[in-house]
Amino acid sequence: MLSWEKKLSGIDIGQESFHTCFGCGRDNPVGLKLEFIQDGSEARSEFTISKLYEGWNGFVHGGILCTILDEAMAYTFFPKIKGVTAKAEFRFRRPAPVGVPMVVTARLVRKTRKLLTTHATITFKDGTVVAESSGQAYVVNSKQG
């Protein structure tokens, strides 16, 4: 067992434990409070980012967009499978203005015993792509065995 697996084994990482998660926690006063709808190995959330999270004047900070993409990719397998991000690659297609409604969608592309491969896209409501990502997560434990 790897050291990070030992640290995480025995820890309840169910959704009820994530009240202060920056991405989805309801009790984080500065968090994004994303709410995901899951359909099998796909996840979707609609959101509007406020000026509190801008980088350049009037535009969402790139790190916030990365956080949203990473969170969506995790929801393609969570809570059935517990995993932690191993790597992620992000591509920005166009600036994301603050205050504009957007949608993030993600899907689980491949699953092995130890790795999950995912893809996510942020779009405007009209389908115009803002940013996308692909990533891998290490499987920490699975309710499937």
Characterization of the model:
The chain is globular. Mean pLDDT is 88; it is low at 1-15. It has helices at residues 3-8, 62-74; strands at 37-39, 42-48, 81-92, 101-111, 115-124, 129-142. The longest helix has 13 residues, at 62-74. By secondary structure, it is mainly β. It has one domain (38-142): Roll (Thiol Ester Dehydrase, Chain A), CATH 3.10.129.10. The protein has a six-stranded antiparallel β-sheet, covered by helices on one side. It contains two helices and six strands; from the N terminus they run H-E-E-H-E-E-E-E. 13% of the residues lie in helices and 39% in strands. The two termini are 16 Å apart.
Question: Secondary structure elements and their pairing?
Answer:
Layout: H1 3-8, E1 37-39, E2 42-48, H2 62-74, E3 81-92, E4 101-111, E5 115-124, E6 129-142
Antiparallel strand pairs: 1-2, 2-4, 3-6, 4-5, 5-6
Short account of what is shown:
The protein has 145 residues and is mainly beta. The protein contains 2 helices and 6 strands, in the order H-E-E-H-E-E-E-E.
